[in-house]
Amino acid sequence: MSFPLQVPTSVQSLPPPSLPPLSLSHTHTLGSHINSTFLPYYQYSPAVAAIFIMAYLIVFLSCMAGNALVCMVVVNNERMRTVTNFFILNLAISDLLVGIFCVPPTLMDNLITGWPFNQVICIMSGLVQGMSVSASVFTLVAIAMDRFHCIVLPFRERLSLMKAVVIIVVVWLLAIAIMCPSAIMLTVGRVEDHYMVLIDGKNTTYPLYVCYEAWSHSSMRKVYTTILFVHIYLVPLMLILFMYGSICLKLCHSTAPITQNLTCPVKANGTPKKRIKVIKMLVLVALLFMISWLPLWTLMLLVDYNNLDYHHLDLLTGYFFPFAHWLAFSNSSINPIIYGYYNENFRRGFQAVFKFHLCSQEMVHQETYSEQSQGPTSCHPAASTGGSVGPYHNPDFS
User: Fold this and answer.
1) Long-range contacts (CB closer than 8 Å, 24 or more residues apart) made by 257-261
2) Which residues pair with 42 in a beta bridge?
3) Residues annotated as region Disordered (predicted)?
4) 179-234: pLDDT as tens digits
5) What b-and-e string marks burial along 64-82, b requiring 16 or more CB atoms within 10 Å of the CB?
6) CATH 1.20.1070.10 for the 26-363+377-384 domain, yes or no
């Protein structure tokens, strides 16, 4: 099983199937397949399926809204275009891709037995999903490195915007490179003598197709899964823990305030309340990343390194994998809350976006129903300028 999407359905542990064109148009009756294995077309009852749909829908909507808002704030406010905010913008873009290309296909894959799409979608969805998740993780490391550089090594030359753009390009190139083997191996194949049964009064059956990685040997799949685990979870987590831990120690043991300087324009006063707030944010980032992705990686390694029987695989793919995917994807919807709520500049930017939206609606309402008013309608300047609410300063720790 490779990262990140395709849930290892029970049939994916079977030998590689033959590869006819994907088609669900041929139907058969149960009586014509006496020696075949039949699986339900829908894996869950309507009640359980509704719970899954609601859970994934919440993650999808919050991911779309939160990350889109972060993008709007950074793009529309020139003063927000700092190095760290560029990294946060890239994180929001990668998290948006996670929401678009990971959440809906994973939900569909959880609800329906087998793979309901063609091979092109199988390859593209696997590549884009893995690429977006990898870019999100690598960007978290870049943000940690930037903050480590500013707080722990404040007198060294700070990254320029051009260098930040280069790092972002490298992040995406690495994300593409590490997922290329998976994209090359992904294929759609029919599982012989396995059929899906649609309970529609006629017990109509459909041939079962799966989207899987056609490795020539199972050991190659294990090696690749291990490489992904090390590079997309273990090493990034260790780096994030080390750098944020160093920042926390620096803030806890520093008696002088961290003031603005020429090499690193980060302004955060030295009051205990401010320091505690920064430490809470850093610890929260590391903990949520670790907790969100650990169950999914544990399950993937468990499937690849243990010869699980049909019943164990069925249990894992039926309930544990859907929850693990949901928890992992929820990290992409939580990131805007962390980097927004704990950052005063983003909070002001969010407020400016909402005020501008409300002001626009009010102006339309007044123009429609108050044509006889004495003078032009007006809004607060902060709203009409698209985000300049109060004086912006560069800090990422204010």
Assistant:
1) 258/151, 258/154, 258/397, 260/394, 261/154, 261/155
2) 112
3) 370-398
4) 999 999 999 998 888 888 887 767 778 888 988 889 888 889 889 999 999 999 99
5) bebbbbbbbbbeebeebeb
6) yes
| 3-class SS of residue 231 | helix
Least confident of 7-16, 60-69, 160-169: 7-16
Show the tokens assigned to 175. Answer: 């994300």
Instruction: Name the token pair of 25.
Output: 């148009």
Q: Using alpha carbons, select from 98, 37, 33 the residue that is nearest to residue 63.
A: 98
Structure tokens at 42: 């829908």
368-379 pLDDT, tens digit per residue, is 444 444 544 444
- Alpha-carbon radius of gyration of the chain: 25
Strand order through the sheet with 204-213: 37-40, 186-198, 204-213
pTM for the model stands at 0.76
Do residues 49 and 111 lie in contact, with contact meaning Cβ atoms separated by under 8 Å? Answer: yes
Strands (E), the chain: 37-40, 186-198, 204-213
The alpha carbon torsion through 45, 49, 51, 54 (nearest 10 deg) reads -160
Phi first, then psi: give them for residue 40, nearest 5 degrees. Answer: -70, 140
Q: What is the DSSP letter of 112?
A: B
Q: Rounded to whole angstroms, how far apart are CA atoms 90 and 74?
A: 10
Distance CA 181, CA 178 (A): 7
C-alpha–C-alpha distance, residues 312 and 10, integer Å: 9
The CA distance from 134 to 235, in Å, is 12
For residue 145, what are the CA distances in angstroms to 243, 246, 267, 271, 341?
7, 11, 17, 24, 21
